[in-house]
Every structure is written in structure tokens, then in C-alpha cells.
Amino acid sequence: MGRIARKHQTSLSAPLLNLAMRITIPAFLAVLAVTAPCRADPKPFPGTPTKWQGFARHDFKIEGTDAIVIVPGKPLPGRPWVWRGEFFDAFADADVALVKAGWHLAYLKTPDLFGSPKAMAKWEKFHTAMVNDYGMHSKPGLIGLSRGGLYCMNWAAAHPDKTLAVYLDNAVCDFKSWPGGALKKLGASKAGSEAEWKKMLAAYDFKNDEEAIAYKLNPVDNLAPLAKAKIPLLLVYGDKDTVVPHAENSEVVFDRYKALGGPVEQIVKPGQDHHPHGLKDVTPVVKFFTDALEPKK
């Protein structure tokens, strides 16, 4: 191991060299993959920067799709980032705290696609650009607010090797619950929407309701890839949510993920409905992503 460390001492930092002397080669390589940036000469983000919460905001397009990136004042080593699934700037206290802590914040505008394969194809292009062109960490943390949970969990299931951790906030984890809900006699949601259900059918190219109901890749059904990869989940939800009932969404994910051996935490807000999202003290969210980023020794 000493010979390996000396061989690479011109390109590795002193802390990594010290670590290399104390751990096995596979473990060292795993740490290196997490801490090292993807490229040494990242391109600057396009567009004339504006301001968001006091930080530089870049608006640009990735193959025709609108994107937003917020740049922290002092980026963390390795350029980690969190990716908002939907509703950029809504209930954004945790987002702001993470940017203040050195994380980049990103959003790709793909509304009305409900985390479908069409959305994931756009996400893949954005992820490739973020990593290969702009030198971002290869594993973003994901923030799934409400229907944004469909985007984040579907990405994580398809790309566990490109996912750091997932924070879900009153998240939709089964489109049968929302937008299906009581309108389609599929769940308890009082806010089930015929219009949103039709958009969802179109997004997934379902021919009819029956095909959608038979679909077996909603997040509640597709947790095994995440659990196998030990992707950490943080579930924050109100236990009186009438829009996205926790008993059909977050609670199902928590119980099934725990049974699969996946690392999962939950913070239940007693008596809270769908709004307001988030926590009054967002420290647990920042800690959740920080712990996922920094390997435990």
C-alpha cells in the first residue's frame, strides 16, 4: 500500500494520501470516487448570472429544456449538488441552507411528465452535462417535493450508481394515490385530479386507465434497486395529508424500504396536511446529505 501511495503522491491531496496508507485498496478507491471532482477544468455555467437568495443563478437550456443552477459562494470539494425534482423555489428553506453550506442547487424544468421515461431521458442528458461539462459530482442528492418524488425515486431506481441520497417531502410515491385517488377509486386522496391523471396517462403513453393501474414501476413497487445500492432515504411528511396520503406513499416506502434493509429515516409532522412543506429547522436535511457525502471512517 505504501508503494501505491508514493506512486500517486503528485496527484492526490495529503489527506487522501494519509487515508490511502491506512485502508485497503478497494476501500480507498471507493472514497476517492466520492471525493474527487469529475474533471479538473469544468466549464462555467452558461447565461448571464442573476441572483437567487443572494447567490448566483444561471438559467440556460440543455438540448432545449430549461435548466437552473445556483452556485454557492464557497463550493464544497468535489462540487456536490442537490437536484430539485419539481417546484423550484417552493418551500426552499432546505435548498437555501444547502447552498449556504457549499452545495450547488439544480433544477430541470420537465413539468407534467410525472417522472416518466420521457422525463428520465431529459434528466439523463442534464446529468451528463452537469458531470462531464460542468465538473459536478457524479452522484447528486435528490429533493422530491410532492409530485417531485416520482421524478427523484424513478431516477434513483434507474440510476442508483448516479444517486447520492433522496429526501422526500410529502412526496407522491404512487400515481394511483395521486393524481388517481378517490376520483379513480384508487386511493384516499381528496385532491385526485382528472386533468392531472390525463396528463399522467399521456406522459407514460398509457392507452387507458387499466394499463396505468397495472403498472408495476411506481416508487412504492420499485425499491429493490435502491436498497441493494444502500441509497439513504429521508422521508418527511404530515400524518394528516389529504392530498398525498402518507399511508399510501411515504409510509409504504418507509416500511418496505426498511424491510429490504435499505437505510431510511423518517420525520413525521403530527397533525400536518400537505402544506406547508418542509421543516421549521432544516438542520436534519443538511445533515442527511452531508452524512451521505462524507464516508464514515
Helix content: 25-40%
Average pLDDT reading: 88
Which CATH architecture of the largest domain would you pick? 3-Layer(aba) Sandwich
Strand order of the largest sheet: 1-2-3-5-4-6-7-8-9
- Unreliable stretches (pLDDT < 50, length at least 5) are 1-38
The CATH topology of the largest domain is: Rossmann fold
Q: Outline, from the CA principal axes?
A: globular
- Given the helix and strand composition, which structural class is it? alpha/beta
Fraction of residues in β-strands = 15-25%
List how many beta strands DSSP finds.
9
Number of helices: 12
The CATH C-level name of the largest domain is Alpha Beta
Could you say how many structural domains there are in total?
2
The CATH superfamily of the largest domain is known as Alpha/Beta hydrolase fold, catalytic domain
Distance between the termini: 18 Å
Please tell me how large the radius of gyration is. Answer: 20 Å
Summarize this entry quickly.
This protein has 2 domains: 2-35, no CATH class; 50-293, Alpha/Beta hydrolase fold, catalytic domain (Rossmann fold, 3-Layer(aba) Sandwich). The protein is built from 12 helices and 9 strands.
Polypeptide structure, described:
The chain has 297 residues and is an alpha/beta fold. The protein has 2 domains: 34 residues, no CATH class; 244 residues, Rossmann fold (3-Layer(aba) Sandwich), CATH 3.40.50.1820. Helix content is 37%, strand content 16%. The chain contains 12 helices and 9 strands. It has a 9-stranded mixed β-sheet with strand order 1-2-3-5-4-6-7-8-9, with helices on both faces. Helix 4 links the parallel strand 4 and strand 5. The longest helix is centred in the middle third of the chain and has 17 residues. The N terminus is likely disordered.
